[in-house]
Amino acid sequence: MKRKSKYNSRLGKLFFIIPVVIIGSLVVYAFVQLNAPGTVIVTAETTAGVQLHVEATIDGKTGETPWTLSLPQGNYIVNYTSVQWYYPPVSRDVGLLPGNTVYAAVAYSPIQRIIQATPLGFNETTTTALHGVTPVNFTNPSSSTVSLEGSLFSRLVIAPGQTYGYVFPSAGTYEFAVANTNETITIKVS
Protein backbone atom coordinates (compact mmCIF):
# COMPACT_ATOMS: atom_id res chain seq x y z
CA MET A 1 0.00 0.00 0.00
CA LYS A 2 1.36 3.33 -1.04
CA ARG A 3 1.10 6.20 1.30
CA LYS A 4 0.41 9.60 0.01
CA SER A 5 2.98 12.20 1.08
CA LYS A 6 1.57 15.00 3.13
CA TYR A 7 4.31 17.36 1.99
CA ASN A 8 2.88 20.42 0.31
CA SER A 9 5.47 21.93 -2.04
CA ARG A 10 3.84 25.35 -1.97
CA LEU A 11 3.96 25.45 1.78
CA GLY A 12 7.60 24.31 1.73
CA LYS A 13 8.55 27.10 -0.68
CA LEU A 14 6.73 29.61 1.53
CA PHE A 15 8.67 28.47 4.61
CA PHE A 16 11.88 28.90 2.63
CA ILE A 17 11.03 32.28 1.13
CA ILE A 18 9.80 33.98 4.34
CA PRO A 19 13.15 33.69 6.22
CA VAL A 20 15.05 34.76 3.09
CA VAL A 21 12.84 37.88 2.77
CA ILE A 22 13.20 38.68 6.48
CA ILE A 23 16.99 38.28 6.44
CA GLY A 24 17.27 40.28 3.21
CA SER A 25 15.14 43.07 4.68
CA LEU A 26 17.31 43.18 7.81
CA VAL A 27 20.48 43.39 5.71
CA VAL A 28 19.06 46.25 3.61
CA TYR A 29 17.81 48.05 6.76
CA ALA A 30 21.22 47.69 8.45
CA PHE A 31 23.01 48.93 5.33
CA VAL A 32 20.75 51.99 5.11
CA GLN A 33 21.11 52.73 8.83
CA LEU A 34 24.90 52.39 8.82
CA ASN A 35 25.18 54.70 5.83
CA ALA A 36 22.73 57.29 7.14
CA PRO A 37 24.40 60.64 7.80
CA GLY A 38 24.69 62.15 11.24
CA THR A 39 24.40 65.78 12.27
CA VAL A 40 27.12 68.00 13.72
CA ILE A 41 26.08 71.25 15.40
CA VAL A 42 29.02 73.65 15.69
CA THR A 43 28.75 76.51 18.22
CA ALA A 44 31.04 79.05 19.85
CA GLU A 45 30.53 81.42 22.74
CA THR A 46 32.50 83.46 25.21
CA THR A 47 33.15 82.25 28.74
CA ALA A 48 30.47 84.78 29.75
CA GLY A 49 27.93 82.85 27.63
CA VAL A 50 27.66 85.30 24.72
CA GLN A 51 27.16 83.48 21.42
CA LEU A 52 29.84 84.24 18.81
CA HIS A 53 29.57 84.13 15.04
CA VAL A 54 32.96 82.80 13.95
CA GLU A 55 34.15 80.64 11.09
CA ALA A 56 34.74 76.97 11.73
CA THR A 57 36.15 74.29 9.45
CA ILE A 58 35.23 70.61 9.47
CA ASP A 59 36.09 68.03 6.81
CA GLY A 60 37.19 70.74 4.36
CA LYS A 61 33.92 72.65 4.71
CA THR A 62 33.76 76.12 6.25
CA GLY A 63 30.75 77.75 7.87
CA GLU A 64 29.80 80.36 10.44
CA THR A 65 28.65 79.37 13.90
CA PRO A 66 26.05 78.39 14.88
CA TRP A 67 26.31 75.92 12.05
CA THR A 68 24.56 72.61 11.44
CA LEU A 69 25.83 70.13 8.87
CA SER A 70 25.17 66.56 7.87
CA LEU A 71 28.15 64.20 7.54
CA PRO A 72 28.68 60.46 7.13
CA GLN A 73 29.75 58.33 10.07
CA GLY A 74 33.31 59.00 11.20
CA ASN A 75 35.67 61.05 13.33
CA TYR A 76 36.14 64.72 12.54
CA ILE A 77 38.26 67.62 13.76
CA VAL A 78 36.57 71.01 14.08
CA ASN A 79 38.88 74.05 13.84
CA TYR A 80 37.82 77.53 14.90
CA THR A 81 39.18 80.89 13.74
CA SER A 82 40.84 83.45 15.98
CA VAL A 83 38.84 86.36 17.35
CA GLN A 84 40.41 89.63 18.47
CA TRP A 85 40.53 90.00 22.26
CA TYR A 86 40.11 86.23 22.84
CA TYR A 87 42.39 83.22 23.07
CA PRO A 88 41.62 80.83 20.20
CA PRO A 89 40.04 77.60 21.41
CA VAL A 90 41.69 74.26 20.76
CA SER A 91 40.34 72.08 17.97
CA ARG A 92 37.47 69.77 18.87
CA ASP A 93 37.38 66.07 17.98
CA VAL A 94 33.90 64.68 17.36
CA GLY A 95 32.88 61.11 16.66
CA LEU A 96 29.73 60.84 14.58
CA LEU A 97 27.51 57.77 14.44
CA PRO A 98 24.83 57.28 11.77
CA GLY A 99 21.62 59.14 12.52
CA ASN A 100 23.02 60.76 15.67
CA THR A 101 23.57 64.41 16.52
CA VAL A 102 26.77 65.63 18.19
CA TYR A 103 27.69 69.10 19.40
CA ALA A 104 31.07 70.71 18.81
CA ALA A 105 30.88 73.61 21.27
CA VAL A 106 33.76 75.77 22.47
CA ALA A 107 34.16 78.76 24.75
CA TYR A 108 36.48 81.63 23.87
CA SER A 109 38.35 83.03 26.91
CA PRO A 110 39.27 86.73 26.93
CA ILE A 111 42.94 87.61 26.64
CA GLN A 112 44.04 89.19 29.91
CA ARG A 113 46.24 92.23 30.19
CA ILE A 114 48.71 91.84 33.05
CA ILE A 115 50.37 95.02 34.27
CA GLN A 116 53.18 94.70 36.76
CA ALA A 117 53.18 97.61 39.20
CA THR A 118 56.14 98.12 41.52
CA PRO A 119 57.19 101.12 43.65
CA LEU A 120 59.46 102.07 40.72
CA GLY A 121 56.73 102.02 38.03
CA PHE A 122 54.99 99.79 35.50
CA ASN A 123 56.36 97.16 33.12
CA GLU A 124 54.80 99.03 30.15
CA THR A 125 53.55 102.51 29.34
CA THR A 126 50.40 101.72 27.32
CA THR A 127 48.06 98.82 26.73
CA THR A 128 44.69 98.20 25.14
CA ALA A 129 41.52 96.50 26.30
CA LEU A 130 37.97 95.87 25.11
CA HIS A 131 35.30 97.27 27.40
CA GLY A 132 33.19 94.65 29.09
CA VAL A 133 35.55 91.87 27.99
CA THR A 134 39.26 92.25 28.69
CA PRO A 135 40.36 91.67 32.29
CA VAL A 136 43.12 94.14 33.19
CA ASN A 137 45.14 92.82 36.12
CA PHE A 138 47.46 95.02 38.14
CA THR A 139 49.90 92.73 39.93
CA ASN A 140 52.61 93.56 42.44
CA PRO A 141 55.61 91.22 42.01
CA SER A 142 57.79 93.28 44.37
CA SER A 143 58.32 92.88 48.11
CA SER A 144 56.90 96.36 48.87
CA THR A 145 53.36 97.68 48.89
CA VAL A 146 52.36 99.72 45.81
CA SER A 147 49.85 102.57 45.79
CA LEU A 148 48.15 103.43 42.50
CA GLU A 149 46.16 106.53 41.67
CA GLY A 150 43.89 106.82 38.68
CA SER A 151 40.65 107.88 37.10
CA LEU A 152 38.75 104.88 38.50
CA PHE A 153 39.89 105.19 42.10
CA SER A 154 41.59 107.79 44.25
CA ARG A 155 44.04 105.27 45.69
CA LEU A 156 44.45 101.52 45.22
CA VAL A 157 46.89 99.71 47.51
CA ILE A 158 48.29 96.41 46.24
CA ALA A 159 50.25 94.32 48.73
CA PRO A 160 53.28 92.25 47.64
CA GLY A 161 52.23 89.24 45.57
CA GLN A 162 48.62 90.45 45.21
CA THR A 163 46.65 91.20 42.05
CA TYR A 164 43.77 93.58 41.43
CA GLY A 165 41.63 92.78 38.39
CA TYR A 166 39.22 95.07 36.60
CA VAL A 167 37.06 94.91 33.46
CA PHE A 168 36.34 98.38 32.11
CA PRO A 169 32.58 98.86 31.62
CA SER A 170 32.90 101.57 28.96
CA ALA A 171 35.29 102.77 26.28
CA GLY A 172 37.74 105.55 26.97
CA THR A 173 41.33 106.35 27.82
CA TYR A 174 42.36 105.75 31.42
CA GLU A 175 45.59 106.79 33.08
CA PHE A 176 47.09 105.38 36.25
CA ALA A 177 50.17 106.42 38.24
CA VAL A 178 52.31 104.92 40.94
CA ALA A 179 51.83 107.24 43.92
CA ASN A 180 54.73 109.60 44.65
CA THR A 181 56.41 108.97 41.25
CA ASN A 182 56.02 110.21 37.72
CA GLU A 183 55.51 106.69 36.38
CA THR A 184 52.20 106.28 34.50
CA ILE A 185 50.40 103.84 32.28
CA THR A 186 47.67 104.62 29.75
CA ILE A 187 44.99 102.05 29.04
CA LYS A 188 43.07 102.61 25.82
CA VAL A 189 39.71 100.89 26.09
CA SER A 190 37.68 100.44 22.91
Structure description:
This protein has 190 residues and is mainly beta. The protein has 2 domains: 1-110, Carboxypeptidase-like, regulatory domain (Immunoglobulin-like); 113-189, Cupredoxins -  blue copper proteins (Immunoglobulin-like). The chain is 14% helix and 47% strand. The protein contains 1 helix and 17 strands. The protein has one helix at residues 9-34, and strands at residues 38-46, 55-58, 61-64, 67-71, 74-80, 86-87, 92-96, 101-110, 113-118, 121-122, 126-129, 135-139, 146-150, 156-158, 163-167, 172-178, 184-189. The protein has a 5-stranded mixed beta sheet, with no helix packed on it. A 4-stranded mixed beta sheet has the order 4-1-8-6, with no helix packed on it. A 4-stranded antiparallel beta sheet has the order 3-2-5-7, with no helix packed on it. A hairpin with a 5-residue loop joins strand 13 (146-150) and strand 14. The longest helix has 26 residues, at 9-34. It starts with 8 loop residues before the first helix and ends with a strand. The mean pLDDT is 88.
Q: Number of helical segments?
A: 1
Overall CATH class of the largest domain: Mainly Beta
> How far do the termini sit from each other?
110 Å
Largest sheet: 5 strands, mixed
* Amount of beta strand: over 45%
Spatial arrangement of strands, main beta sheet: 11-17-16-13-14
Domain unit count: 2
CATH H-level superfamily title of the largest domain: Carboxypeptidase-like, regulatory domain
Global shape: rod-shaped
What radius of gyration results from the CA coordinates?
Answer: 33 Å
CATH architecture of the largest domain: Sandwich
Approximately how much helix is present in the residues? 10-25%
By helix and strand content, what is the structural category?
A: mainly beta
Would you tell me the overall average pLDDT?
88
List the uncertain runs.
Answer: none
Question: Can you write the helix and strand succession as a string?
Answer: HEEEEEEEEEEEEEEEEE
Count of DSSP E strands?
17
Annotated CATH topology of the largest domain = Immunoglobulin-like
